[in-house]
Amino acid sequence: MPCATLQPMTLRDRIASRVDSLQDRLVALTQDLIRIPTLNPPGDAYVPCAELIGAHMQRLGFTIEYVRGHGTPGDSDQHPRMNVVARREGARPGPCVHFNGHIDVVAVGEGWTFDPFGGQVHDGKVYGRGACDMKGGLAAAMIAVEALIAECPDFAGALEISGTVDEESGGYGGVAYLASKGYFSKPRVDHVIIPEPLNVDRVCLGHRGVWWAKIETKGRIAHGSMPFLGDSAIRHMSALLERFEHDLFPKLAQKRTEMPVVPPGARASTMNINSIHGGLGEDFSGFPSAVVADSCRLVIDRRYLLEETLEEVRGEVIGILGDLAEKRPGFRYEIEDMWDVPPTMTPVDAPVVQTVSDEIYRLFDRAAEHVISPGTYDQKHVWRIGHLRDCIAYGPGVLDLAHQPDEWIGIDDMVASAKIMALSAARLTGNL
Q: What band does 1 get if pLDDT is binned at 50, 70 and 90?
C-alpha cells in the first residue's frame, strides 16, 4: 500500500509551529522580565527593563528608540520614565500592527510563597509580581512577532513592540506621553493590541469611564470640650456620606449598561469612597489634642457607563452638595476634579476585533467573548490622544490574579496567545 503524500505546511501552520518551537525562549523571556523589579511607585528599574526589551528586539532586526517621558508625574533622574519602542519595516508597504505592554508592576504585598521576583516555574506556571499583569503578555507579543518574521521574512507592512511605564498609575509617563508625540496615531500605526490579562479566549473592547474628585467640607475649630462653640467638618462630611448612602448609591445600582462589562456587577454605575481624612493629620504622635475638626477631606472614584455623560455624573454629586449647602446650617464645601476619562468601546466590526476573534475561534473552536474592563487601562490614551480607534486588549492570564500574592501566568496560555497574536498580525498586515 503506497504511503500517503504529505501535504506542505501552510504559512499559518508554520507560524503556529514556530511559536511552539519558541516556548522555552518565551518562558525564559518572561522570567527575565519578572526578575527586574519595576515597582511603581516609585518607578524602579525602568531603564534596565526597557534595555532588556530593546536588546531582544534589536537582535530581530528592529530599530530601537528609548523615549523618556520628560516632565511627567514621577519623572526624575533617579526614576526616569523610560519607554522603549521597537519598529521593523517590512519588505513592502502595508499597515502597521503595534503591540503595547506596560513594564511597571504594583507593590509586592504580603502572603507570597514564591519569590515575587524569582520567575520560578512550577506546575506549568511562571510565578512572580507582574507575571500576569503583564510581563507574560508582553513576552508573548515579542515571541509572536519573532515567529512571524522567521516564517515570513519578506513580510509586508510594519511591526512595532513597545514597553511602556506607569500604566498602574495612569500611564502618563508611558502611553500618554508617546501618544502626544504621535506614536499611537495614523499614518504611523493602524492597529494596536495591548496584551493585558483578560483570558486567552476574550477580546476586550474597552473600559468604563472614570471621574475622580476631592471633596472638602469646612467647619470652625474650637476646644473639644466645648464643641458647641465650633462647627465640625466631620459631621458635615457624615451628612454628605448619608446622602450618598441613601440617595446616590441606590440610584447608581439601578443604572445598567449594554456594554459587556466583566464581572457582571460592574455593569452598573459604581462609586468608591477612596479615602477620608478629617481633623488632625495622620502623622501626629502622642495623644491627640482636643479640637473640633475644621476640615474633612474625601476622595471619590466614580466609574460610569457609555450611556452616561461626565456632566450627568458630576451633576449628581454637585446636586447633593448644593442641596446640603441650602438646607444644612453651616454646610460649606469645596470640590476639586482630579481626573476623568470617558468610556471606550471599539466597535465589534473593527478589523482588529474581527481578526483576533476569528483566530481565537480557529484555535479554540469556540467564539471569542467580547468584554469591557471595569477599570481603565492604556487604551484610553490611544483613543483620546492618539485618536486611533482600532485598538483592543488581548492577552494571556487571568485578570483576577493581577496584584495578588503568588501571581502567575500559565505557559500554555502564553503559547496560545502568542499564536493568536502572530497570526492576527500576519492577517492585519496583509501577509496571510
A: very low
Which of 254, 37, 45, 215 is CA-nearest to residue 129?
A: 37
CA distance 273 to 21: 49
Closest CA to 102 of 121, 82, 119: 82
> What are the structural domains, with CATH classification, of the chain?
11-207+343-428 (3.40.630.10), 209-341 (3.30.70.360)
CA distance 167 to 100: 11
> Is residue 131 very low, low, confident or very high in pLDDT (cuts 50, 70, 90)?
very high
pLDDT at 5: 46
Dihedral pair phi/psi, residue 199, rounded to 5°: 85, 140
Rounded Cα distance, 337 and 355, in Å: 39
Residue 128 neighbours by CB under 8 Å, 6+ apart: 31, 34, 35, 114, 115, 116, 117, 118, 119, 120, 135, 407, 408
pTM of the predicted model, to two decimals? Answer: 0.92
pLDDT average, residue stretch 35-52: 98
Cβ-based burial of 43 (10 A; exposed 0-12, middle 13-18, buried ≥19): buried
pLDDT digits (tens, 9 = 90+) for 161-199: 999 999 999 999 999 999 999 999 999 999 999 999 989
Distance CA 380, CA 366 (A): 29
Report which of 278, 276, 277 is spatially closest to residue 301, judged by C-alpha positions: 276
Q: Which residues of 56-68 are buried (b: 16+ CB within 10 A; e: fewer)?
A: bbeeeebebeebb
How many angstroms separate the CA atoms of 51 and 56, rounded? 8
Catalytically annotated residues:
104, 167
More confident residue, 81 or 280: 81
